[in-house]
Prior knowledge:
heterodimer; A: minor pseudopilin epsh fold; Oxidized Rhodanese, domain 1; 2 domains; five-stranded parallel beta sheet; three-stranded antiparallel beta sheet; about 45% helix; about 15% strand; B: alpha/beta; minor pseudopilin epsh fold
Amino acid sequence: MKYRIAPLFCRPWTLNGMSPRLIESHYEHNYGAALNRLNSVTSELEALDVRTTSAQVISRLSREQTALLNSTLLHELYFASLGGDGRSLPDTIASALARDFGSVDRWRHEFIALAEALTGDAGWILLTCVPRDGRLINHSASDHGESIAGGIPILALDMYEHAYHIEYGANTTAYIAAFMRNIHWEAVEARYADAITVSRPRALYQPEFKDVPSITPEEVQEMLSSGKRVQIIDTRPRHYSTRAQDIVEGAVWRDPERIEEWMTSLSKDEPVVTFCVYGFHIGCQSAAALREAGFDARYMAGGHYAWKAIKGPVKLFE
Amino acid sequence: MSSSRWRRGLAGGSGWVLLVYVPRDRRLINQYAGDHGQATAGGIPILALDVYEHAYHIDFGANAIAYIDTFQRNIDWVATQTRYEDASQVQAPRPLVQKEFGDLPGVGVEEVKAMLDSGEPVQIIDTRPRSYISRQQDIMDGAVWRDPERVQEWIGELSKSDPVVVFCAYGFHVGCKTSIALREAGVDAKYMKGGHSAWKAIGGRLKLYT
C-alpha cells in the first residue's frame, strides 16, 4: 500500500500575512517527510513475517505508522483549512458553531485559547464533528497521534513550531491571528456537510422488542429526583439476583417468572419501569407483559448496569 | 492481508488496539493507542480491544495472551461487518477541485518519478512564473524551465511523439493553462498535480537552478 501525495490545497500567494515561503517549507519538508516516512514504515510493516516477528517490533512499527498517518492526514487538513478570508462564515457552519458553543464568538475564543495554551509547546488544535452525538467539539492534541475516535476533523491548526517559526519566531499570538484571518470557511462548511452524513455508531437493536417503549436511566433518575410518581420494578432473574449485592434505590425486586402473581399489586395510574441486568430480553418481556395487561410500562435501557454506570444510587440488596 | 497476520499484530502494552477504517485511502489499519486520547484523525474504528488491565485482570490476572485469545473468540464479526459497511460510506476528505480546468488530464508526481526512473521518454517543462523562478534555488532534475508567458516562442522545440509534462509551483493555474495551450497545438501534454512543491515533498531529485 502506497499513500499518494495530495496537492497543496491553498494558494500560498493569496494568503494574508502568511508567506509562500512558510507554506512551501511546511508542505515540502514537514508534510512531505511525514508522507514519505509513512510509506517507508508501511512497507517495512507489510514486509514483516508477523508470525515470527516479536510483538514489540510489530507494535513499535505500527505505532510509528499511525502517528505518521495522522501527521499526513492533519497536515492535509491544515492546508485545506487555509485560503479564505476568515470572516464570512456560511450559515450552516455558523449555526452549528452557535448551537454547540453558544455563539461563533465563544467558539472562536475557546479555539484560540486552546492554541495559545500550546505556546512554547507543540501540537494540533482541531474542530471535530462527533457523529455519536452529532456535535462539534474543539480539542487540543499534544502529539500527532491524538484524535477523537470516529470523529471527523473539519478544521486544523498546526501548532508545531515548524508551522510558524521561520516567519513569526516565538510570537504564536501573531501566528494564531494570521491563521484565523485565513480560514477557508466555505471549505470548512463543505467538510461539515460531509461529516454530518456519517452515520452514528449503531445503537443496540432488538427487533423482537421494537414495539416495547424504553426509558433511559438518566430519565428515570430525573423522574425520581423531581419526585414524579413511578413504580420501579427490578426483574433480574432469581438465579442472578440471589448473588447480587445491590439494587437500585427506589426499586423493588419481583421474580420475572411469576409476573402474574405480583402484577395485581401495581397501580395502573402511575407509570411502571422494569429493568433486568443489562437491558436485554427479561426487562423487555416483563414490560411487554405489563403493557398487555394495561399498565403504562417501559423497560429501562441498559438495565441495572447502566444505572450503576451513571452512578445512580443503589442500596444493599437484602 | 491474511487474518493470521492481522491477529498477530494485536499484542502490546496497556491501551487500546483498534481496527480502523481510513476514508482517505479506503483501507483498514490496525492501530495501537497507548492512551485514551490516541485515534486516527477522521478514521472510523470498527473493532476495539481494551488492553488496560481493568479489562482483564479480574479474570485473567497477568495473562494478557489468554485474554486476547478470549477476546478473539468473542468478536461479533457480523456487527463488525455492519460497522465496516457504515464506515465505507464515509466520504474521503474532499480533493482539490479546479472547476475552470474541468477534466484536463493531470499526472501524479509519483507517476512522473516512475517514468523518469524507468527511462521512459518524457519532456518535462518547468513553467513556474518568471517572477517566481528568478528567486528559486532548485529545479526538478530532468526538467527545463520555459517562460509560461512565451509558450508560442518555445512550443516549436517540443517533439509531438513524446509525452510532455508541465508544472508550475503548486499545481494551480499556470501549469494547467500551459498544458491547455500545448494540447491545443497538438502536443500530448499533462500538468503535474501538486507542481514543483509536491515533487520536492515526495523527495524527488532536484538540481541547482542556474
